[in-house]
Amino acid sequence: MRRRLMAGDLTESPIQGRGPIAEERASLEPSATSASVDLEIASRIITLSLTAQDARQLLFSLHKAIHDHYRERARAAQWQQHAQRRKGREP
What are the start and end residues of every segment in region (Disordered) (predicted)? Predict the structure, then answer.
């Protein structure tokens, strides 16, 4: 289930017998970030009565994905600042 959610495969519910949830993504605001969209979808899935262990694993996975996302954004911003400083020094 975690791999399917992280890969964006939302064509069918990870909970057997619950039906498609692809329209969940479509109903969300298009300007939302990917992490917030996934978090919203995850919260809706959790309310469909996942086991406690599945819910913990899903929340941990989402927490890690969000943490990694922001770490990568910070790394990209630092690299961009570095490139701009170098560009300013070059003749």
Answer: 1-29
Domain boundaries, the chain: 2-89
Stated as kind and residue range, the H or E segment containing 10 is none
Q: Please, how many CA atoms are within 13 Å of residue 13, restricted to the half-sphere of its CB?
A: 15
**For residue range 14-26, what is the model confidence (pLDDT) as tens digits?**
444 444 444 444 4
Q: What is the separation of C-alpha 64 from the centre of its chain, rounded to a whole number of angstroms?
A: 9
How far apart, in whole angstroms, are the C-alpha atoms of residue 12 and residue 17?
9
- The span from the CA of 36 to the CA of 33, in Å, is 5
Please report where in the chains the tokens 């495969």 appear, as a residue.
9
How far apart CA 91 and CA 28 sit, in angstroms, is 48
| pTM above threshold 0.85 | no
